[in-house]
Write a structure and sequence with these properties.
globular; Rossmann fold; alpha/beta; about 240 residues; about 20% strand; two-stranded antiparallel sheet
Protein backbone atom coordinates (compact mmCIF):
# COMPACT_ATOMS: atom_id res chain seq x y z
CA UNK A 1 0.00 0.00 0.00
CA UNK A 2 2.56 2.53 1.12
CA UNK A 3 6.31 2.21 1.48
CA UNK A 4 8.22 1.37 4.63
CA UNK A 5 11.75 1.43 5.91
CA UNK A 6 11.84 -2.34 6.15
CA UNK A 7 9.96 -2.90 2.88
CA UNK A 8 8.00 -5.86 4.35
CA UNK A 9 6.32 -6.52 1.03
CA UNK A 10 9.58 -6.32 -0.90
CA UNK A 11 8.43 -3.14 -2.63
CA UNK A 12 10.52 0.00 -2.75
CA UNK A 13 7.77 2.60 -3.04
CA UNK A 14 10.28 5.43 -2.70
CA UNK A 15 12.83 4.56 -5.38
CA UNK A 16 15.64 4.67 -2.86
CA UNK A 17 19.05 5.54 -4.20
CA UNK A 18 17.72 7.09 -7.44
CA UNK A 19 19.63 10.18 -8.54
CA UNK A 20 16.39 12.17 -8.69
CA UNK A 21 15.42 11.39 -5.09
CA UNK A 22 16.51 14.72 -3.56
CA UNK A 23 14.63 16.69 -6.20
CA UNK A 24 11.61 14.43 -5.80
CA UNK A 25 11.53 14.85 -2.01
CA UNK A 26 11.81 18.64 -2.19
CA UNK A 27 9.10 18.96 -4.83
CA UNK A 28 6.89 16.45 -3.02
CA UNK A 29 7.03 18.49 0.17
CA UNK A 30 6.10 21.70 -1.67
CA UNK A 31 3.22 20.09 -3.52
CA UNK A 32 1.86 18.33 -0.43
CA UNK A 33 2.04 21.54 1.59
CA UNK A 34 0.15 23.36 -1.16
CA UNK A 35 -2.61 20.73 -1.15
CA UNK A 36 -2.72 20.68 2.65
CA UNK A 37 -3.15 24.45 2.84
CA UNK A 38 -6.03 24.28 0.37
CA UNK A 39 -7.61 21.51 2.45
CA UNK A 40 -7.30 23.65 5.60
CA UNK A 41 -8.98 26.58 3.86
CA UNK A 42 -11.78 24.22 2.81
CA UNK A 43 -12.14 22.48 6.18
CA UNK A 44 -11.88 25.53 8.42
CA UNK A 45 -10.97 25.17 12.10
CA UNK A 46 -9.40 21.78 12.88
CA UNK A 47 -8.66 22.31 16.57
CA UNK A 48 -10.21 19.52 18.61
CA UNK A 49 -11.49 17.66 15.56
CA UNK A 50 -10.69 13.99 14.87
CA UNK A 51 -8.67 13.37 11.72
CA UNK A 52 -8.14 9.80 10.52
CA UNK A 53 -4.99 9.44 8.40
CA UNK A 54 -5.20 6.23 6.35
CA UNK A 55 -2.03 4.89 4.78
CA UNK A 56 0.61 6.28 7.12
CA UNK A 57 4.04 4.83 6.43
CA UNK A 58 6.60 3.54 8.94
CA UNK A 59 9.31 5.25 6.88
CA UNK A 60 11.10 7.93 8.88
CA UNK A 61 13.92 8.66 6.44
CA UNK A 62 12.26 10.94 3.92
CA UNK A 63 11.06 14.40 5.00
CA UNK A 64 7.90 14.00 2.91
CA UNK A 65 6.92 10.76 4.66
CA UNK A 66 3.94 11.43 6.96
CA UNK A 67 4.56 15.15 6.52
CA UNK A 68 0.90 16.01 7.09
CA UNK A 69 0.87 14.54 10.61
CA UNK A 70 2.89 17.38 12.22
CA UNK A 71 0.96 19.92 10.14
CA UNK A 72 -2.31 18.56 11.52
CA UNK A 73 -0.97 18.53 15.06
CA UNK A 74 0.14 22.14 14.71
CA UNK A 75 -3.48 23.00 13.96
CA UNK A 76 -4.71 21.23 17.08
CA UNK A 77 -6.32 18.22 15.40
CA UNK A 78 -6.67 14.90 17.21
CA UNK A 79 -4.86 12.58 14.79
CA UNK A 80 -5.59 8.86 14.44
CA UNK A 81 -3.38 6.73 12.19
CA UNK A 82 -4.12 3.50 10.37
CA UNK A 83 -2.02 1.47 7.93
CA UNK A 84 -1.97 -2.18 6.85
CA UNK A 85 1.75 -1.97 7.60
CA UNK A 86 3.22 -2.00 11.09
CA UNK A 87 3.50 1.67 12.09
CA UNK A 88 4.08 1.16 15.81
CA UNK A 89 7.42 2.97 15.45
CA UNK A 90 5.50 6.20 14.83
CA UNK A 91 4.23 6.19 18.42
CA UNK A 92 7.60 7.50 19.66
CA UNK A 93 7.93 9.98 16.79
CA UNK A 94 4.40 11.34 17.23
CA UNK A 95 3.41 10.62 20.85
CA UNK A 96 0.26 12.76 20.49
CA UNK A 97 -1.34 10.46 17.91
CA UNK A 98 -3.41 7.32 18.34
CA UNK A 99 -2.51 4.30 16.20
CA UNK A 100 -5.25 1.90 15.18
CA UNK A 101 -4.41 -1.76 14.76
CA UNK A 102 -6.26 -4.18 12.51
CA UNK A 103 -8.84 -5.28 15.07
CA UNK A 104 -9.55 -1.68 16.08
CA UNK A 105 -9.81 -0.63 12.43
CA UNK A 106 -12.77 -2.91 11.83
CA UNK A 107 -14.80 -1.13 14.49
CA UNK A 108 -13.39 2.39 14.15
CA UNK A 109 -15.85 4.94 12.87
CA UNK A 110 -18.75 2.50 12.63
CA UNK A 111 -20.73 3.99 15.52
CA UNK A 112 -19.10 7.42 15.60
CA UNK A 113 -17.72 9.01 12.45
CA UNK A 114 -14.42 10.84 12.40
CA UNK A 115 -14.61 14.51 11.50
CA UNK A 116 -12.17 14.05 8.60
CA UNK A 117 -10.47 11.16 6.84
CA UNK A 118 -7.36 11.92 4.81
CA UNK A 119 -5.23 9.72 2.60
CA UNK A 120 -2.19 10.92 0.71
CA UNK A 121 -0.83 9.02 -2.32
CA UNK A 122 -2.50 5.74 -1.39
CA UNK A 123 -5.43 5.46 -3.80
CA UNK A 124 -3.18 4.50 -6.73
CA UNK A 125 -1.85 1.51 -4.75
CA UNK A 126 -5.07 -0.24 -3.71
CA UNK A 127 -5.68 -2.16 -6.95
CA UNK A 128 -8.37 -2.18 -9.62
CA UNK A 129 -10.84 0.61 -10.28
CA UNK A 130 -13.43 -1.32 -8.26
CA UNK A 131 -10.96 -1.57 -5.37
CA UNK A 132 -10.36 2.17 -5.57
CA UNK A 133 -14.10 2.81 -5.34
CA UNK A 134 -14.33 0.45 -2.36
CA UNK A 135 -11.38 2.14 -0.64
CA UNK A 136 -12.93 5.59 -0.99
CA UNK A 137 -16.34 4.25 0.09
CA UNK A 138 -14.72 2.85 3.23
CA UNK A 139 -13.22 6.23 4.07
CA UNK A 140 -16.57 7.90 3.45
CA UNK A 141 -18.37 5.46 5.73
CA UNK A 142 -16.03 6.45 8.57
CA UNK A 143 -15.99 10.23 8.23
CA UNK A 144 -17.91 13.46 7.75
CA UNK A 145 -15.33 14.86 5.36
CA UNK A 146 -12.58 13.67 3.04
CA UNK A 147 -9.23 14.85 1.75
CA UNK A 148 -7.66 12.33 -0.64
CA UNK A 149 -4.69 12.90 -2.95
CA UNK A 150 -3.17 10.91 -5.81
CA UNK A 151 -0.48 11.57 -8.45
CA UNK A 152 -1.79 12.73 -11.82
CA UNK A 153 -1.50 10.00 -14.42
CA UNK A 154 -0.78 12.42 -17.24
CA UNK A 155 2.07 14.32 -15.66
CA UNK A 156 5.15 13.82 -17.83
CA UNK A 157 7.03 12.08 -14.99
CA UNK A 158 5.81 8.90 -13.33
CA UNK A 159 6.98 9.44 -9.77
CA UNK A 160 7.25 5.80 -8.66
CA UNK A 161 9.40 4.46 -11.48
CA UNK A 162 10.82 7.91 -12.35
CA UNK A 163 10.48 6.95 -16.01
CA UNK A 164 8.89 9.72 -18.11
CA UNK A 165 6.07 9.51 -20.64
CA UNK A 166 5.58 5.75 -21.10
CA UNK A 167 2.73 5.79 -18.55
CA UNK A 168 0.73 7.84 -21.08
CA UNK A 169 0.42 4.69 -23.18
CA UNK A 170 -2.60 2.40 -22.74
CA UNK A 171 -2.10 0.57 -19.47
CA UNK A 172 -1.52 -2.90 -21.00
CA UNK A 173 1.29 -1.45 -23.13
CA UNK A 174 2.75 0.51 -20.22
CA UNK A 175 2.77 -2.58 -18.03
CA UNK A 176 4.32 -4.71 -20.77
CA UNK A 177 7.17 -2.20 -21.12
CA UNK A 178 7.69 -2.14 -17.35
CA UNK A 179 7.97 -5.92 -17.35
CA UNK A 180 10.54 -5.75 -20.15
CA UNK A 181 12.49 -3.19 -18.10
CA UNK A 182 12.46 -5.46 -15.06
CA UNK A 183 9.96 -3.29 -13.15
CA UNK A 184 7.56 -6.17 -12.54
CA UNK A 185 6.26 -4.79 -9.26
CA UNK A 186 5.02 -1.61 -10.90
CA UNK A 187 3.60 -3.58 -13.83
CA UNK A 188 0.99 -5.10 -11.50
CA UNK A 189 -2.33 -3.34 -11.13
CA UNK A 190 -2.42 -4.35 -7.47
CA UNK A 191 0.64 -2.18 -6.83
CA UNK A 192 0.15 0.73 -9.21
CA UNK A 193 -3.01 1.90 -10.94
CA UNK A 194 -2.63 5.57 -11.82
CA UNK A 195 -5.66 7.83 -12.14
CA UNK A 196 -6.42 10.66 -14.52
CA UNK A 197 -8.69 13.40 -13.25
CA UNK A 198 -11.54 11.74 -15.13
CA UNK A 199 -10.76 8.41 -13.46
CA UNK A 200 -10.74 10.10 -10.07
CA UNK A 201 -14.07 11.75 -10.83
CA UNK A 202 -15.57 8.35 -11.69
CA UNK A 203 -14.23 6.82 -8.46
CA UNK A 204 -15.57 9.73 -6.39
CA UNK A 205 -19.01 9.69 -8.01
CA UNK A 206 -19.27 5.92 -7.63
CA UNK A 207 -18.13 5.89 -4.01
CA UNK A 208 -19.82 9.01 -2.67
CA UNK A 209 -23.02 9.06 -4.75
CA UNK A 210 -25.37 11.72 -3.35
CA UNK A 211 -24.17 11.55 0.25
CA UNK A 212 -21.24 13.96 -0.13
CA UNK A 213 -20.75 17.27 -1.86
CA UNK A 214 -17.29 17.08 -3.40
CA UNK A 215 -14.87 18.82 -5.70
CA UNK A 216 -11.69 17.72 -7.44
CA UNK A 217 -8.72 20.02 -7.73
CA UNK A 218 -5.21 19.74 -9.13
CA UNK A 219 -1.85 21.15 -8.18
CA UNK A 220 0.94 21.77 -10.67
CA UNK A 221 4.62 20.94 -10.83
CA UNK A 222 6.98 21.02 -13.80
CA UNK A 223 4.51 22.78 -16.05
CA UNK A 224 1.66 20.28 -15.70
CA UNK A 225 -0.85 19.03 -13.11
CA UNK A 226 1.16 16.67 -10.91
CA UNK A 227 -1.46 15.70 -8.33
CA UNK A 228 -5.22 15.54 -8.11
CA UNK A 229 -7.03 15.80 -4.80
CA UNK A 230 -10.54 15.34 -3.52
CA UNK A 231 -12.27 17.61 -1.03
CA UNK A 232 -15.61 16.32 0.19
CA UNK A 233 -18.09 17.02 2.96
CA UNK A 234 -21.05 14.90 4.02
CA UNK A 235 -24.31 16.60 3.16
CA UNK A 236 -25.46 16.37 6.77
CA UNK A 237 -22.18 17.67 8.22
Amino acid sequence: MVGSTKEPLGIDYFGRGHWLTKIHVASSLRVRRRMFDIFCAYAGELRGLTVLDVGATPDTERPDSNCMIPWLLERGARVILYSPENIDNLASRFPEVKILHATEWKAAGVEHRFDWAISSAVLEHVGSRACQVSFLRDLADRSRGLFVTTPARFHWMEFHTKIPLIHWLPKPMHRAILRRLGRRTWAKEAHLNLLSKGDFSYVARSALEDEFAFELRSTWFGGMPSNHFLLARHNEA
